[in-house]
Amino acid sequence: GAVVSQHPSRVICKSGTSVKIECRSLDFQATTMFWYRQFPKQSLMLMATSNEGSKATYEQGVEKDKFLINHASLTLSTLTVTSAHPEDSSFYICSAKDRVAEAFFGQGTRLTVV
Amino acid sequence: GENVEQHPSTLSVQEGDSAVIKCTYSDSASNYFPWYKQELGKRPQLIIDIRSNVGEKKDQRIAVTLNKTAKHFSLHITETQPEDSAVYFCAATSGTYKYIFGTGTRLKVLA
Predict the structure, then answer these.
(1) For residue range A27-67, what is the model confidence (pLDDT) as tens digits?
(2) Which residue in A22, A57, A72, B24 has a CA-CA distance of 20 to 30 Å to A51?
(3) Considering CB atoms only, which of B42, B49, B89 is closest to A44?
C-alpha cells in the first residue's frame, strides 16, 4: 500500500507551548488528509478534514483556533496544537488518500503536555 | 451524520476458536466498510474491507459480511492465534474516506 509518514512519533512539550505535527504522503498525491485523535483505550475520533489548497473542515467540538491545519501541498499537511495543555495529551494520527484509493494512516504522534 | 456502533468491547477466545465482531451503521449512503487492527501504540492497519455491492469477502482466516438492509457488517476470524490479539476497529464511509470509526473491540486470544 501507499506510504504515509508522520513526524514526530513522540513529543513532550511544556504547557502553553505549540507543537507542530507533519503528515506526508511519500509515494502518492494526497488530495485529502484527515486528522484523528485517540485517547487511551478509546476509538479514533475525526478532528478535521483538509483538502489541498483550501481551509480545513473541523468536526463539531474541535476548536479550529487551537488545532491549526495547513494542507499547502499535495504531499504535506500539518497540525499545530497551539497553547497546548495537559488535556491535549493524546495520540494524533493522520490519514491521506488520493482520488481513487483508500486512505492510509501515518504512524501516529504521541503528544504529552507537561 | 454517520454513527457506527461496535460490539463487543472486549472478546476473549481460546486459540484456535473463532472470533466475531459486529458493527452497525446509520447512514444508508455509506458504501465502504474497512476493518483495522491496531496494536498498542501503533497505527491502525487495514486488514480487510468490503464495498456495498458485495455481501461477503474472505482473505485466508479473515472474512467480512455485509447486510445492507439491516445496516450491519461483521468481522470473522477463524483459527485464531495469539498474534491476532489486538484492538479491532470497524469504520464506515460514504466514499469520501472520512471514516467514522466504531468504538473498538479488544480481542484476546488465549494460548
Answers:
(1) 888 888 999 999 988 888 999 999 888 889 999 999 999 99
(2) B24
(3) B89
